[in-house]
Specification:
Layout lengths: L30 E10 L2 E11 L4 E5 L6 H8 L7 E6 L2 E2 L5 H4 L2 E4 L11 H10 L5 H14 L15 H13 L5 E5 L7 H16 L3 E5 L3 H7 L2 E6 L2 E6 L1 H5 L6 E6 L7 H12 L4 E7 L2 E6 L5 H11 L7 E4 L3 H9 L6
Parallel strand pairs: 3-8, 3-9, 6-7, 7-8
Antiparallel strand pairs: 1-2, 1-4, 4-5, 9-10, 11-13, 11-14, 12-13
Helix pairs in contact: 3-4, 3-5, 4-5
Length: 344
């Protein structure tokens, strides 16, 4: 909008034209997927999928097994052909022979992809050589990558001598040694100990802080919530939700889940049914259930849900034991939106 100050009068008969508004140049997304369709025979794997990954972020791509995540990633990487749609990386079309673009991408697969015959250092050096020809530059990058994942003491070890967590770190070093601008992490913390998991997540956040855009897939929702700034959920090859973790949680009815130990209801079926009916009748209650001596009450978002539930139990003379309350998790979002637990 042009303000009055943007227009001046030369005299009563002439007026200068308003200055055009300045345009702010926004860089193209790291990934732009438009209406992507992919069939495997009669099976529709990607159903007009759209996806936009902004530069400099950590993007969570989630979905149950068979949802189309792997197919989408392989199409984005130029490893699969597709029926229709468009894929652009850093504003440029991506295809099987887009080698200049592929040099700017790193991939850390779920399966360990290293050579058992080579040492840690030789593995990292080999993968670096696929992108960097200069030996001096390659040596520097290899040293940096090994230090980055904390494998300096294991340089001469072969992979079969490494623990699961150390193998995962080696897998990461091989995928990021060439300092890619865009990195795909496919379930990098599967079957590792908590210490290794924390180390891997901290490493991913550090790579992002240094400028790499991250696409992250995982079945561990606490990880996704911890590191991802945007999350896309897909199922049956199409997007069903997109937003921050908090935005996704606001999409479902359940705003709070209250658990109350009530062993006295176990032996009194009539009282148990009256209690459940009374709790379900509360304005904020979405559902109530009883199992293994515990009442579970699902509520919509509200400031006084716990107080209302406990007052109702007191009115019914139902003794309450241990009480806990939690907000919805991303797995709750999955159950609500897909009907499928993420770990299936």
């Amino acid at each position: 909008m042009v303000s009055m100050n943007d227009t001046t009068h030369a005299d009563s008969r002439t007026r200068t034209a308003p200055r055009p508004a300045q345009r702010v140049a926004h860089p193209s997304p790291a990934i732009a997927v438009d209406e992507l369709v992919k069939h495997y025979g009669d099976k529709l794997a990607l159903d007009y999928l759209n996806m936009e990954v902004r530069r400099g972020g950590i993007y969570g791509l989630l979905g149950p097994n068979g949802s189309g995540k792997t197919t989408a990633i392989n199409c984005i990487l130029g490893l699969l052909t597709y029926d229709s749609g468009e894929i652009r990386i850093f504003g440029e079309p991506m295809g099987p022979t887009s080698y200049d673009l592929k040099r700017r991408i790193g991939v850390v697969p779920q399966d360990i992809a290293v050579f058992n015959e080579l040492t840690v250092e030789e593995n990292v050096s080999y993968f670096c050589s696929l992108y960097v020809a200069d030996r001096a530059r390659r040596k520097s990058l290899v040293d940096e990558a090994i230090a980055f994942v904390g494998l300096d003491d294991y340089r001469r070890f072969r992979p079969r001598k490494l623990s699961g967590g150390l193998l995962r770190r080696l897998n990461i070093a091989c995928g990021v040694v060439h300092k890619p601008e865009l990195i795909f992490f496919d379930e990098p913390t599967v079957a590792v100990d908590p210490q290794s998991r924390n180390s891997i997540l901290e490493g991913i956040e550090k790579l992002n802080a240094e400028g790499s855009t991250i696409v992250y897939t995982s079945h561990y929702m606490e990880e996704v919530e911890q590191i991802c700034d945007r999350i896309q959920i897909i199922d049956h090859g199409r997007q069903i939700a997109l937003g921050t973790a908090d935005e996704l949680k606001r999409m479902i009815d359940v705003g709070e889940r209250i658990s109350i130990e009530a062993p006295s209801l176990a032996a009194d079926e009539a009282m148990r049914e009256r209690t459940l009916a009374a709790l379900r009748a509360l304005d904020a209650v979405h559902d109530a259930a009883y199992e293994d001596d515990v009442l579970t009450v699902s509520c919509v978002q509200g400031a006084h849900n716990l107080i209302d539930v406990l007052q109702e139990l007191r009115r019914l003379d139902v003794p309450a034991g241990h009480v806990s309350s939690r907000t919805p998790t991303l797995n709750d979002v999955f159950l609500a939106l897909t009907g499928t637990d993420l770990r299936d």
